[in-house]
Automatic annotation (TrEMBL):
Top-level taxon of the source organism: Bacteria
PANTHER family per UniProt: ANTI-SIGMA FACTOR ANTAGONIST TM_1081-RELATED (PTHR33495:SF2), ANTI-SIGMA FACTOR ANTAGONIST TM_1081-RELATED-RELATED (PTHR33495)
Keyword Hydrolase set for record: no
Entry similarity comment: Belongs to the anti-sigma-factor antagonist family.
Keywords: Membrane, Transmembrane, Transmembrane helix
CDD domains in alphabetical order: STAS_anti-anti-sigma_factors (cd07043)
Protein name (database record): Anti-sigma factor antagonist
Protein species of origin: Pseudonocardia halophobica
Keyword Transmembrane helix among UniProt keywords: yes
């Protein structure tokens, strides 16, 4: 289900939910979301304008089923400005998600945008980034504030 764009008080929001079958629905605890519902959103992205920047909040799982939707949601807002992707709410980051992060970085560079990723203390995200070396390829931040305030690379 895709909703957006929606204008609210001069702030641009884009919300995208990707619904996937809950493969754990038969688990004793009800599965991934605990609802038993066969279609539970596993990835949500919400974009908001913050001055000249766009902040994209991501929650859920970035895996083979959702990586393309994640990549598209972020690259849709790349237009030569700062984009900060907040990954603190990500519950799973698979190899397809790592590839999506690198793809986002590549598209940002090609479009003249700057993209930064806020990981906070989320080990689910930090660990695969560190193990694979992808962390060295991305601008990573612990908090949103510094990611928004730091000057763009090459800025005077």
């Amino acid at each position: 289900m895709v909703q957006g764009p929606v204008k609210q008080s001069a702030v641009f929001f884009l919300v995208q939910e990707v619904a996937m079958p809950d493969v754990c629905a038969d688990a004793p605890d009800g599965g991934g979301a605990g609802t038993g519902d066969p279609f539970v959103p596993h990835l949500t992205t919400a974009a908001e304008a913050r001055g000249d920047a766009v902040v994209v909040h991501v929650t859920g799982e970035i895996d083979a089923e959702t990586a393309a939707e994640f990549r598209d949601a972020v690259t849709r807002v790349l237009d030569g400005r700062l984009v900060v992707v907040v990954l603190i709410g990500v519950a799973f980051l698979g190899s397809a998600g790592l590839a999506a992060l690198l793809g986002i970085r590549d598209r940002a560079v090609a479009s003249g945008a700057v993209v930064r990723f806020v990981v906070g203390g989320n080990r689910v995200v930090i660990r695969p980034l560190a193990i694979t070396g992808v962390a060295r390829e991305l601008e990573l931040y612990d908090e949103l504030g510094p990611a928004l305030r730091d000057p763009a690379p090459g800025a005077a």
